[in-house]
Design brief:
The protein is mainly α and 251 residues long. The chain has one domain. Helices cover 78% and strands 0% of the residues. It has ten helices and no strands. Helix 3 packs antiparallel against helix 8. The mean pLDDT is 81.
């Protein structure tokens, strides 16, 4: 790889920080993919290598939330497994389509979607005792499929958007949605990594180094999130979404 060798010094510490924060807000790929490109990786290799690393982040987040009992196996539920299955299939399609996605379209779609859902979040009052209306649930499944394609193709902001779909359309509380999306993203990243791997796009050693650090960072982030009051978590999540969206739009 070409690029600034000094960036290597920042790669692993930054991977830990974005994993810890990303365990709650998502969006870590919006930082790590550009950094890998600055280090000299071609865009497709940067996306593929980051996808491999984020697989470990998703695993760490899932384990962390399970250890805190936020995502005990019974809490995954039938809905969670259906969302994971939809994501597994659509993310494979997304990974295969990566080479054909317009960079301009991605840069515009992600921040605008984040802002729309971030505006909706404060007005949503998800209740697991009051199931959402059928049309909202159906729309939630459709958007999960659409986002699965995007998640397999790039992943930047994917779990953020999926968390917002879960809270605003599927009637899932924010903390559980944050935890559940890490479980779902594990399927997205794993199948996308397989597709990228067969295409020879993954830098395995670099991705494994990032992944090991991200796994630990996600464990820490999940543990902290489980102790944060619901109102503070919603505020932190909303602010994080708006900041990431503004950053992308102003680039």
């Amino acid at each position: 790889m070409n690029g600034d060798p000094g960036l290597y010094i920042w790669l692993l510490p930054l991977s830990f920080v974005v994993a810890a924060v990303g365990a709650v807000t998502g969006g870590q790929s919006l930082v790590t993919v550009p950094l890998l490109m600055m280090m000299g990786l071609p865009p497709h290799q940067a996306i593929a290598t980051n996808m491999f690393a984020v697989t470990f982040l998703s695993l760490g987040g899932t384990v962390g939330f399970m250890r805190s009992r936020t995502l005990a196996p019974p809490l995954i539920g039938r809905l969670g497994w259906w969302l994971a299955l939809i994501t597994l299939l659509t993310s494979a399609v997304g990974a295969a389509l990566t080479a054909h996605i317009s960079e301009h379209a991605v840069r515009l779609f992600v921040p605008l979607s984040m802002l729309v859902f971030a505006v909706m979040l404060p007005f949503s009052s998800p209740s697991e005792t009051q199931p959402p209306a059928p049309w909202r649930r159906s729309l939630g499944f459709v958007l999960t499929a659409v986002l699965g394609v995007y998640g397999g193709a790039y992943s930047g902001g994917y779990t953020t958007l999926l968390t917002l779909v879960c809270t605003t359309l599927l009637g899932i509380s924010l903390l559980r949605a944050v935890a559940l999306t890490k479980f779902i993203n594990l399927f997205s990243c794993a199948v996308a990594t397989l597709v990228f791997g067969f295409a020879g796009m993954v830098q395995w050693r670099l991705g494994a180094s990032m992944g090991a650090v991200m796994f630990v960072g996600a464990l820490v982030g999940a543990r902290v999130a489980a102790d944060v009051p619901a109102r503070a978590l919603r505020l932190f999540f909303s602010v994080g979404v708006v900041v990431m969206a503004a950053f992308l739009l102003l680039r």
